[in-house]
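Treating backbone geometry as a discrete language has practical consequences that deserve illustration. No coordinates are needed to read the tokens, only the vocabulary itself. For completeness, the protein is quoted in full, as a sequence line and a line of structure tokens:
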Amino acid sequence: MSWLVTGGAGYIGAHVVRAFIEADIQPVVFDDLSSGFLDFVPPEVTLVHGTLLDGPLLMRAFEEHDITGVVHLAGFKYAGVSVQKPLHTYDQNVTAMAKLLAVMQDHDVTNMVFSSSAAVFGTPDTDLVTEQTPTLPESPYGESKLIGEWLLRDQAKATKLDHTSLRYFNVVGSGYPDLYDASPHNLFPLVFEALLAGKTPRIYGDDYATPDGTCVRDYIHVADLALAHVTAAQRLEAGESVERVYNLGSGDGVSVAQIMSAMAEVTGIAFEPEVAPRRPGDPARIVASGELAARDLDWKMRHTLAEMVQSAWDARRNAA
């Protein structure tokens, strides 16, 4: 019995795979390696190399492995780029999910944990996002994630599918020295690359209505996120009730200035960030409540900001 982890060679997916192994659940990785890395997949884990749009390959993966559930992380994850590539985004995130659900139905696989996104909320008009906060996505990426949740909802009405979707904001840190965030769009790798190149990191606006004037956001450690995925999978497999959506949030968040200070302290590279004008649409504070996930998924913030930065920096240097 195995759980299929789509996108299991990526930064987040690789952490989920290792969390499954540590929970004595056998994972099978399905990944096209477009943004993931072969080295992120442990040698004892089967890798099915290909795209979810390849129906015959997906069918073979289910036929050749005793799949009992799916953690679906694969997708096109760049919100900004999705505005320029809407059709590509919908193909990767919506069409692919529909194909995956069809193959699951054909093989009587009824459990799915979906890696959704806080992008489904767009720019909420509240500074503490809950599961009841209206979903108003502002990019094709956010829309595609919300459609994914709708697909699960509708398929569950028609079949025996049991599912939950996990929504989260900014994932940082590393749980293992060989797993790192290589995204060209995420804050931590952007700051690290700037520092390593002798450049000054930039922040956008320091006059917001927050304690230090910079934006406050929700940052969670990737290892904590991975554990929540595994706990959700275990509850589904055990037939225990779960909510259809959970926010994985810190409840309080940290400011951009706090992150920059932690970056300087951890890296030992002293710097004062360049302050650029505000970006249009950037709210002062967006933080999610994690109360429901804490109740059901043993969700908690197990790492301090310093630990998040230190683990990310160690993994980045190890990759150099």
Residues 172-218+250-319 form a domain with the UDP-galactose 4-epimerase; domain 1 fold (CATH 3.90.25.10).
